[in-house]
Amino acid sequence: MSATDSATPWTDMNSGVVRDAIPLDQLGAASITPDGDFEAGSYASFTLTYTAGLYGIDDSGSLRICFRFASDQSNPQFDDPKGANYTVVEASNGAVLQVRWDPKANVRPWDRTLWIKVVKGYLTEGETITVRFGVTDHGGPGMRLQTFCEDTFEFRVLADPIATFNFQPLPVQPMIAIVPGAPERYVAVLPTRRRVGQAFALKMKGEDAWGNPSDKCDTTLTIEADGQIEGLPETVKMERGQRATVIDGLSVTNPGRVSVRLKDAEGSVVAETNPLLIEDTDLIHFWGDMHGQSEETIGTGSADQYFSFARDLAFVDACGHQGNDFQITDAFWSELNRLTATYDQPGTYVALPGYEWSGNTSLGGDRNVYFPTDNRTIRRSSHALIEGGDVNGSDALTCEALFADLADAGEWDVVMYAHCGGRYADISVAHDGRFERSVEVHSSWGTFEWILHDAFRLGYRVGVVTNSDGHKGRPGASYPGAGKFGAIGGLSCFLMDKLDRETLLDCQRKRHHYGTTGGANGRMIVDLEGRFTENGLLYHDDPSLFENAEGTVADRAMMGDIVHLPSGEMELFVSIETTAPIERVDIFNGLELAETVRPYGKDDLGRRIRVHWEGAEYRGRFREVIWDGSADVSGNAVTDATPLNFLNRDKSLGVDGNSLSWKALTTGNYGGFDISLADEDSGSLKLQTPLVSFEQKIAEIGLEDTIYDVSGELPRFVKVFRLPDENSHRALSFARKIMLKDDGDNPIYIRLTQEDGTRAWTSPIYVYR
Predict the structure, then answer these.
(1) What is the spatial distance between Cα 687 and Cα 697, in angstroms, rounded to a whole number?
(2) Is residue 175 over pLDDT 60?
(3) Coil/strand/helix, residue 312
(4) Do residues 526 and 558 make contact, with C-beta atoms less than 8 angstroms apart?
(5) Once rounded to an integer, what is the mean pLDDT over residues 750-760?
(6) Mean pLDDT of the chain, nearest integer
(7) 78: Cβ–Cβ under 8 A, 6 or more apart, which residues?
(8) What whole-number distance in Å separates Cα of residue 559 and Cα of residue 437?
(9) Partner residues linked to 530 by β-bridges
């Protein structure tokens, strides 16, 4: 982003002001010291100096120093000189200032605001207000910076010198650069399914403590392969200045499973790829994150950087930009379409045009809209942050109107998702399965299985996707950092024969995809097939919605298919390959849990106990559930303790002998911990959290879950169960006969849970009599 406000016209309303009320050169100026590069998540101190312009600042006039919504830097505080983020504000002439911090005191995306008001006296031209962020004079560590990178991190200063409450941004803004730290871990990625002899690449990066791709790697790693991979070197050099390393031109000549390990000079494994299956097959795998935003709306970094990060640093095959429609001006819509046309390279990378229809929940709620071609009509839910209003008459103010407008225009090539972010989608208010083919059950905002359950209750036939809805400029590798986002952003796996827009949209319409909660172990291989003892009619378009839907005679179906099976039985075949050990696979028939399959049995259990908490407060923005608590083991000894899905590094698990304490939260997803005990059956476990407290005998904890349920509007619960001491199962295949109901749909799908806390959901096979 430019240092001047006028350089990018589509951001004109981001400061929420009346333009040019005061000439920009008379507003004053601001500078910051030090400037330059600062490591993400580090502590630093800054002095921001505002020098008053011609008008000075009148009695009751104000300054606002604003930061982006997406920023997760720590908030300024004014009471504890020895604490972090201690901030001091002074006027050079002794004027009395009122200072407060308000996370929602300016127009988005610049809503995080330090508000400085002159309450006694005034400033004249040349006098200053000095703000010292992260004062260390009294022993404090400084100001904790945001945990993700940004080339142009602004301390955005707005002035109201005449006390009219019209805040205008200064023409030149103080800024620094937030850069990655040293690598804390390494990540290596392969495709998950390719054909025999088909070329592919091994892609690697180092990530810093907060998940940013690091440009400070300086190491040579040894490469070891499980299976024979042609073209694979023995070592790889990861050099400073590069944030990713790619080895192209690899192939496998025989069907089977391969993977790669990276080892350091001491022989320790520092990274392991996902499994790659080589098969003679029509459909192969492509991974995508189709939902996120950049700084032109409410995210971070430019839209150009957004698409390049997804391709070059997150290693995804497909990406979509989904800016809030009420912030997308016509100029930025043109720019977005230029970028998707530029980045879209069939066979290599798909950049899918689209936007987020961002109507309030009462009007239908957020929807993702995807187009197969560039420069299509954007039908906005409002012009809340765009000047000029609906001059083209193209707005769709309700989601129902959006569906109707698309149908009237004959735009049957559009695909939509319903999703839950701030304004969650209410699919009971509006849904049209001719366009809306899937629901998003996981993103950086959390996990939302309830939206899939809503679809089942309402009789809709939808697929499952997961994306990031990331705001931190890291599509495809979206970590929660230290802010309000409580989960790692998801990834969707698309089952297609080739990689281009037309094929991706066709895959989305057919629901031939599954979604995962993302992360380093989030690219697992999941196969789901239904086989029938008698032929049925298989549909891709829902025959209850499309009068001309064509069915084909079939005795088997894959995830996403719709099957009319008047008679005969169904058997479900599941095959899974993962990087992390498998905890369980749940088989669902719609809302009903049909069976839980584990790769181990009671005889394999050991001295390891898992405590698992999960849930959301409600569907809207403030869904966070606090699980801060403690646990004590009596009559036994804790020999090891491991946190589970403590995704925010500010949350931690502490261990003191047989006592544990923690700070944790969930937003629909789950977390917890494992403890290993000296004795298998002795003693008891006592746990306390704000919602759940219990004491349970260790001997009573077994294979099946003991559930302590405090569900409200949405599920919230703690469950306890036992695991093997060592679980080596990273592959699982099984078949199960499915009891089909005669009335209504049988949406048959699975949810995979890995021991590391990663989950995956398949799109259902819809079978009806």
Answers:
(1) 12
(2) yes
(3) helix
(4) no
(5) 98
(6) 95
(7) 86, 87, 88, 99
(8) 13
(9) 557, 572
Q: Residues 6 or more apart from 266 whose CB is under 8 A from it? A: none
Q: Mean per-residue pLDDT for 466-471?
A: 96
What is the rounded distance in angstroms from the CA atom of residue 195 to the CA atom of residue 252?
A: 8
Quick check: helix, strand or coil at residue 408? helix
Cis (ω within 30 of 0) for the bond into 81?
no
Residue 420 CB-half CA count within 13 A = 28
pLDDT of 9 strictly over 50: no
Q: pLDDT grade, residue 421 (50/70/90)?
A: confident
Single-letter amino acid code for the residue at 530: G
3-state helix, strand, coil in the chain (%, to 5): 10, 40, 50
Q: Do domains 5-179 and 185-280 have the same CATH topology?
A: yes
Neighbour-count burial of 36, counting CB atoms closer than 10 A to its CB (0-12 exposed, 13-18 middle, 19+ buried): exposed
Q: Please determine, looking at this structure, whether the domain spanning 285-519 carries the CATH number 3.20.20.140.
A: yes
Task: Supply 214's token pair.
Answer: 């690091």
Domain ranges of the chain: 5-179, 185-280, 285-519, 600-726
Q: What is the pTM of this model?
A: 0.95
| Candidate CATH numbers 3.90.950.10, 3.90.79.10, 2.30.130.10, 2.60.40.10; the one for domain 185-280 | 2.60.40.10
**What tens digit of pLDDT does each residue of 153-171 get?**
999 999 999 999 999 999 9
User: Three-class SS of residue 308?
Assistant: helix
Give the residue among 208, 290, 338, 335 at the shortest CA–CA distance from 475. Answer: 290
Class of 5-179 per CATH? mainly beta
pLDDT by residue (tens digit) across 533-574?
A: 999 999 999 999 999 999 999 999 999 999 999 999 999 999
Check whether the bond before 480 is cis (ω within 30° of 0). Answer: no
- Which residues are registered as beta bridge partners of 640? 676
